[in-house]
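# nightly structure sweep
# worker-07 picked up a monomer target from the shared queue
# config: single-sequence mode, recycle default, output format = structure tokens
# input follows
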Amino acid sequence: MRERGLGRPAEPVSSGGPAGPARVLVLVYGIFALAAGARAGVQLATRFEEAPVAYLLSAVAAVVYAVATAGLVRGGRTGRRTALAAIVVELVGVLVVGTLSVADPAAFPDETVWSAYGRGYGYIPLVLPVLGLVLLARTRRNGAPARD
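# output follows
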């Protein structure tokens, strides 16, 4: 009698985390969480009085990116819901702050991550939530297994 598993090809070991395009999206969200957080931290610590609203909005963006990253990494029902909520907040934030910053530039004496729809970041903040929502819809439609 052969022992179980001998003579058969090894199955890939998976950490249960995201794969393929989802992994790239998680990486970009993580980078944006770090970039926005670092930028906001420096601005809040050194120049808060110059543009407090703009710097606080960048801090909020960093938190939203971090929550989206955590939700996408966690996966399952809870992770998907967390990511969905964060990504919707992100999209609304980009659209509202982007519109306000274009309509009344004087209201934002310094740029935020979401100013002018993310112009300072190559408009990635505008595209990122759309890609996040598409990914969540695709994984849901494809019947991605829940890990909760």
